Amino acid sequence: MKKILKTSSLSTEDGTEAMKYIHDQDVINFVSEYNRRYLHWEEVGKRKDKIPIKPIYLWYLMKMFRVTKAPNKVVFGKYIFHYTMLDEFQEKLYTLDKGAAGTLASVIDAISDNREKYILNSLMEEAIASSQIEGATPSRRVAKEMLRKSKKPENKDERMIINNYNTMKYVLEIKNEEMTPELLLEIQKRMTEGTFDDPEDEGVFRDNDEIRVFDNDGEVLHTPPKKEEVSELVSELCNFANNDDQFFIHPIIKGIFLHYLLNYIHPFNDGNGRTGRSLFYWYVLKKDYWLFEYMSVSRLIYKKRRQYKLAYQYTESDYFFDKDKEIGDLTYFIKFNLTAIIESLHEILKYLEIKQQEQYQALKYMNESDELNTRQREILRQFIKYPHKTMAVKEVMNTQGVSYATARSDLFYLEEIGHLKKQKSGKEFLFVLIHNDA
Length: 438
What we know:
Layout: H1 12-19, H2 25-36, H3 41-45, H4 55-68, E1 72-76, E2 79-83, H5 87-111, H6 115-133, H7 140-148, H8 156-173, H9 181-192, E3 213-214, E4 220-222, H10 227-242, H11 251-265, H12 272-286, H13 297-303, H14 305-317, E5 319-322, E6 325-329, H15 331-368, H16 374-385, E7 390-392, H17 393-400, H18 404-416, E8 420-425, E9 428-433
Parallel strand pairs: 2-6
Antiparallel strand pairs: 1-2, 3-4, 5-6, 7-9, 8-9
């Protein structure tokens, strides 16, 4: 991925020529459409054969119209960023605020009371994808099997995934705490434990300026602030995360800011990306957006990791001036992340709807089957309602009011016809439902 050039090459001559088209409706239609989609200069340049004037003139008009919308400004130490609340942002945020949580809750309740299962599954997905973004190589199937069976890691990549999973569970535990530099260090330490060549890099801020963000070809994409700035910027990051009194920023937008700013500072020698994504989860959960417990945004980011990197680059390379200071444009990063969040929501809803349909079909078969008696239907109904429960013979004796022999016969019969499987537990058998996890 090549370095994106900064969009500062707008001369007075370009502006003069561009203004000649200010009343050309065809040109203004392009300006409006490209600003609605919030295209970057590089994207405009690639469309030179489709637009009626030189790309640089169209870009000048696009920037002029963007300024008139009075973008919101975030001052972060000596660094300044701005963002524009696009109409699509308002629509996506409305979906997340109003309809999404209720819809998700109703589907989960319809399937099972066992919400913990879906939270743990989401944490697994998030841990795996967030690690894959940083280069971990185990496949999703292998990684989930490792996490489900609590296997010991065999290499650095597997350790990275296990660390990420355990850290995400830790983030759930601390979601109501204030963010501090010490807590941020603890998150990074948990993320990176046992994965550094030098263990002293765990849980400490970087003390050097050798850190760069490179692409696959060795091109420098981002040079973080100097090491001397790290401590102060991290403190300011924590204050920004904890303080909502100065001015209102929608919590999901603010969570995206925190994700970006952590990676902009790049305060650690490694683990910045994973820590930044976990910081986003901490913040939105702190603000009671519990639906994120069931969603893996990193899974969508991993699928679109090229666009993810471009969102960083577009933000840093496109800017305005404010009293001779460059102002990076966070709109690109917000746009990418909000899209990933909505797509993640659609994925989990689709997954749960499939599970709901599977449950419906299982119950339909059970009620219509001539293979099952009344007791066996009730046993199977409990397993379908609680897919990860285990059941012993004595439980069937107590709930069905039957003898040991009858209870044992019912469970073994359900195993024989392919609904249950038995597992040895001490001197007795425990029975579990046969099902396929996604």
